[in-house]
Amino acid sequence: xxxxxxxxxxxxxxxxxxVAGEAVRHLEWLxxxxxxxxxxxxxxxxxxxxxxxxxxxxxPAGVAGAAAAPGASPGAGSAPAPPRYALADKGCGSPELLxxxxxxxxxxxxxxxxxxxxxxxxxxxxxxxxxxxGEGPGGDEDLQxxxxxxxxxxxxxxxIEAMGFARSEVYIANVVKCRPPENRDPExxxxxxxxxxxxxxxxxxxxxxxxxxxxxxxxxxxxDGTPIGRQRGRWREYQGVRCMPTFHPAxxxxxxxxxxKAWDDLKQVMKEFGKEPRKG
Length: 280
Ligand code: SF4
Description:
- The protein contains ten helices and eight strands.
- The chain is α/β, with parallel strands linked by helices.
- It has one domain: Uracil-DNA glycosylase-like domain (Uracil-DNA Glycosylase, subunit E).
- Strands 2-4-3-5-7-6 form a six-stranded mixed β-sheet.
- It is globular and about 65 Å long.
- The protein starts with a helix and ends with a strand.
- Iron/sulfur cluster binds at residues 104, 107-110, 112-113, 119, 176-178, 190, 193-194.
């Protein structure tokens, strides 16, 4: 066994290439953001130390009990239904999140159900202290059943990595879980139908910080119709959780000159986690 390991070290390491690729994406994002700073974690690698923690967000009435541990009796005397979802499913991973997923089910609560290929529940670390909330799935997300996997998603991943996190360390979800046709904006009744499940995800996750990406996430979470350009960069609060509004990555792709502002917003989030940028 040891000989085999020793021998393999003579070969180029695929892991090294992956690390180099990640570093390049990191530096690309910093360059695009117009900054010459290198963020460094203020703590050893791994999850940030547990915070004293915000008070638990309240579960909305629409999904009361959705964040409770599963296993609640479906009814005295009735045989338990076979599980339709598993902890290994995207965006599940804890009993609390799995309970929300079970309650959402193969949802038809709004008209977006008819056009979706896959319901996009969420993805990431079920114990993440940092959560990103976007608007809704696009075409790539609809196909893969995972939020932020298209071009905007690739930019979001760069942003996350530039902050000193791995994508797998955070949790990502959207306001609506099904793709609006032709990527139109989600409508009020669709947001109203789906938002309770986002609230339940947040209640199940209990993150330390939420980054709200773009107009719909900000306006939905904060109940504030002020344009995103005037809301971004200022700490707010959602159900006791600190919330930082910033631009949506799709907007940043269309308006790259705004990346510097988004980076300023993300630096405030980094500071919350002890990840101070350092002059390079
Ligand atoms: S968008 Fe939300 S409420 Fe509408 S069908 Fe999909 S999961 Fe259900």
